[in-house]
Amino acid sequence: MTTLADVLVVGGGPAGVAAALELRRRGVEKVILLEREGHLGGATRHCSHSPFGMREFGRVYFGAGYGRRLEHEAQQAGVDVRYGHSVVRLGEDGSVLVTAPDGVETLRARRVITSTGAREQPRSARLISGDRPIGVVTTGTLQSYVAFHGLMPFRRPVVVGSELVSLSAILTCLAHGARPVAMLEQGPHALARAPLTWLPSLAGIPFLRGAEIVDIRGRERVEAVQIRHAGEIGTLECDGVLLTGHFTPEASLFLQSNTGVDAGSAGPAVDQDGRSANPLLFAGGNVLRAVESGGWAFREGRSVGAVVAADLRRDPAAREFVPVTYDDPVKLTVPSLLRPSHLREGAFRHFQLRFRRRAVGRLSLELDGQAIWSRRGRWQPERRVLAPLPPRALLAAHVHFGFQEET
Amino acid sequence: MPLQSTPGHASFDVAVIGAGVVGCAVARRFTLAGAKVALVEKGADILSGASKANSAILHTGFDAPASSLELELVRAGREEYLEIYKQLGLSLVRTGALVCAWSEREADKLEDIARQGRENGISELGLMTAAAARATMPTLSNGLVAALEVAGEHIIDPWSAPLAYLTQAVGLGCVFLRGTEVLRGEFDGRWRLETSAGALEAAAVVNAAGLYGDTVDERLGLGPEFRIKPRKGQFVVLDKAAFRHVPRIVLPVPTEITKGVVVCPTAFGNVLIGPTAEEQDDRVRATVEMQTLEALLARGAEIVPALAGIPVTAIYAGLRPATEKKAYRVITRPEKRAITLGGIRSTGLSAALGLARHALRLHEGFGATFAPPAPLPAVSVPNLTETCRRDWQQPGHGEIVCHCELVTRREIEAALASPVPPGDFGGLRRRTRAGMGRCQGFYCNARLAEMTRGRLATPLAVDEGRKP
């Protein structure tokens, strides 16, 4: 069966819901939101600790409460929300293959917005050495154990990583009777900012910088890890390994399609409107890049929704795009494509960049070989970097971020 | 523990020791012949040792040693698989293989390999120029010099096959005793086995204990005539995005030391790179190592450049039960009514059904006869492979529990209620694919912890039983 919608939104986290709300607000008739779970909210559903909703709804929600607010808003706005609908394949022509409890269905729309979010990389993708016992999980898994089932996967985990989410992972452990044995950061510095990084020591958890797991040991369940720290190998007894951070876009729908993903961000390559190389397919939220807050994802989804509402009024923009290139310590840019546009305002007013590693130097935006913006700084990995996206960039034949490193 | 009850003094015609792919096939073959069979396994589930980690290729035997028992049994096993797979709900992905030469020296060897293959009775062999080979698989690196096509090499689901063999046996009365380690055995006209879960009696024993083949023979007072020298193989599984780049099995030209690294599709729609061949003394630990995995990834991208940058879905390592010699170590002791199927290194999946027939033939020499059961009930295991219809495509599946692999609630419930239910989390993964996908259980692991409460030897949650 084929249903014709104006817009299909894939994924009911903050970005997807915001896009759907904005489309309806701008009078788009038929907006179908496909959500694989039984509720809206996406990753915010298991984040019991973080406040959400301040900027979009003017009040603070926690985890599930924020999701309920999204559900309420979507219902009020007349969004056709389909729960338990898991998208299997993204078609080139605006169709998507869906599986739901009633079976398989193909839905078709004039535009598709993918907002499938991000997740932490599992142990396999990090190629961590050792046995493969039970008890090696990511923060997201731990939090769904706790939030949805009242269970715990371990009592004495070693925590790997020092991003913001790592601190949230420690709070989740402490709140549910688990006592982390240590927190390890491979680099020389914590990736989150002080004073948040004081948390482990306040909780009496050793924070080892420059430390990494070299061997996970355990037959059935984790029994110990060997770590390399300050050039020496040591053993930490534990019953689990909690892998935190290392987020990656959940972009498998693009990865498996002909459109593919961007080598830098691992999410779909999009232009200033959130439009991919295929002009029917848009994306917004953390599927574009790992990783931003729920509030950021919401605003981004809303901007993409606004653009798509305008885009529906004309033929799909099949114009050629210009890829955005960048020098090495820059890991990714969003957008990573630019297209000449009829729209008064794009979805993104800035380039978002991330650095691969710590670097000191001058970052500059060059249009057709000419620097139009630059800034010197001390750049950190996993931190948001914004650069202006002036309208004339859309007309340039070469768009490049240069970096002059100071040693 | 929800595992099956202790055997007491139950009496059997045949006790098969070890529920790897060979043990499951042997249990099936003897049960089909009419024997009352106990399959004794020390692990919590079938395939707890060498059989859980292999490259899932159904071999032709083109590169097996000439006129060896291995060649005979690989061919017999393959032939029977092709006869029975459809009835059992199993799959066959007809990929064919290309033995790829990446240098002139390797190319010179292809002729010999082809000759050997023809002597081994494999007719569908074709020497190809690099251009012809790349016409059948355009993603191969342009460093290719020449190739040998082996059309009969195929891919199967390596876990559902033994599960189907045992499911069929259990349906006909075979008793599967898991969590049951054979500690000692005595023969005085009949075998009396002492196990970690009580004693049992059997007229004959078949040792299919894989990595512990020598240990079990020793415990039974039989030799041992060989020593297991575990050989580790590490593998990397790439995301399903890689699948379209690897339509065929890509084999290297083997060296004296190793068969080399294979790049092949899996029946589940991924791509596999591996194995390594690393000798070790440890029979328990099969660790993965970052540097080795990185080297495998690099090798994979040399062979098929489009694989570069495709995310890793899974990493694993297995141990092959190699011995001092390359040959299978099949030993029959009519005076003791004992058969040892040892040293089944890397062709066990292909040869298992052949080994089972061979064991039955050897057992016939012991003089016992059985009456085959009739009629045979129909047995079928659920399909997990991408080439056939999956449960998520049918209405009424309840919900998708694992979105990466599209595993339904109905499939998980069916596995838990099946005649040979999973005994541990690995067993559940192998039976359903849940948690095997790109997020490796980020989404479904907690749900599975909830659904498998009280069902697995090692529960996923540490506080099982406590409700919020």
TrEMBL record, chain A:
Q: Which UniProt keywords apply?
A: Oxidoreductase, Pyruvate
Oxidoreductase: present as a keyword of the record? yes
> Where does the source fall among the domains of life?
Bacteria
Which is one GO molecular function term here? oxidoreductase activity
Q: Which InterPro entries match?
A: FAD/NAD-bd_sf, FAD/NAD-binding_dom, Metab_Enz_Cyan_OpOx_G3PDH
Give the FAD/NAD(P)-binding domain ranges: 6-296
- UniProt KW Oxidoreductase keyword: yes
UniProt cross-references to Pfam families, sorted A to Z: Pyr_redox_2 (PF07992)
- The protein's name: Pyruvate/2-oxoglutarate dehydrogenase complex dihydrolipoamide dehydrogenase (E3) component
What is the species of this protein? Rhizobium subbaraonis
From TrEMBL, chain B:
Q: Which residues form the BFD-like [2Fe-2S]-binding domain?
A: 400-450
In alphabetical order, the GO MF annotations are: oxidoreductase activity
Q: Does the keyword Oxidoreductase apply?
A: yes
Question: Which keywords accompany this UniProt record?
Answer: Oxidoreductase
Q: So which domain of life are we looking at?
A: Bacteria
Q: How far does the signal peptide extend, from start to end residue? A: none
Q: Does the record bear Lipoprotein in its keywords?
A: no
Q: Cite the FAD dependent oxidoreductase domain residue spans from the record.
A: 13-359
Name under which the protein is recorded: Glycerol-3-phosphate dehydrogenase
Checking Gene3D superfamilies in the record gives:
BFD-like [2Fe-2S]-binding domain (1.10.10.1100), D-Amino Acid Oxidase, subunit A, domain 2 (3.30.9.10), FAD/NAD(P)-binding domain (3.50.50.60)
